[in-house]
Amino acid sequence: MSNNNITVYFDNRFIEFVYPKTDENNGAHMLLTKKPEWQDVTAFLHSSEKKLVYESLQPELNFRHFMTFFIPVEAAGGLVVNRSGQFLFIFRNGRWDLPKGVIESNEQGEQAAIREVQEECGITTVQIIQKLPISYHIYPDKKTDWILKKTHWYLMMTSSNTLPVPQTTEGITKVEWRDPDNIDDIIENTYGNIRNLLGLAINQSFNK
After folding, report:
1. What pTM, to 2 d.p., does this model score?
2. Most buried of the four, 44, 98, 101, 111, by CB within 10 Å?
């Protein structure tokens, strides 16, 4: 795990694990310097506040403890670009998203990401260009369990001219290619982790 701050998204809200005296703390719902406790997390989840910040000299350690509150799920997905420089998006359950899915037991992250793009979008020829930042998000499952999903993201390229086909059995109703300057409606109706990933991609800040 890196020494960078860690962000966990809950829809368009988020929980951060940061080093002391960071600008990100401005306007936090709670700024806590103690080890994460479930009652504090649930208080935030049931509030209307935008963020919860855990500040410490060991944010990675706090995050590892936070992870014990959740059922872990590991997934992979792709930000696919075509020869015209357009991005590939899916529309599922009333929100814009990127193709992704759970990594199966016999797969590596790269394999799972390619498979999900192929299955969810009907794009048969994709090539991974580089790895993008991992994202974390939490969501409720059934009535009592909470999931912490770790998603491995990859920038992909396709030279295929095949029209994308939505995998309707997975609740996907649309698949579209969009120019980077024509995604305002997508930014407005997507998840916080996807919005952050798109910001990195559009600004090309993922290039090292």
Report:
1. 0.89
2. 98
- CA–CA dist 206, 66 (Å, integer): 27
Secondary structure in 3-state letters for 138-166: EEEECCCEEEEEEEEEEEEECCCCCCCCC
Alpha carbons 139 and 75: distance in angstroms, whole number: 14
Looking at this protein, which amino acid is placed at residue 146? W
What are the start-end ranges of the H helices in the chain?
Answer: 38-45, 59-67, 109-121, 184-188, 192-202
**Can you tell me the distance from the alpha carbon of 197 to that of 178, in angstroms, rounded to the nearest whole number?**
15
- Give me the mean pLDDT over the 138-151 stretch: 90
Superfamily of domain 77-202: Nucleoside Triphosphate Pyrophosphohydrolase (3.90.79.10)
> What whole-number distance in Å separates Cα of residue 155 and Cα of residue 67?
27
Q: Can you give the residue ranges of every domain in the chain? A: 6-67, 77-202
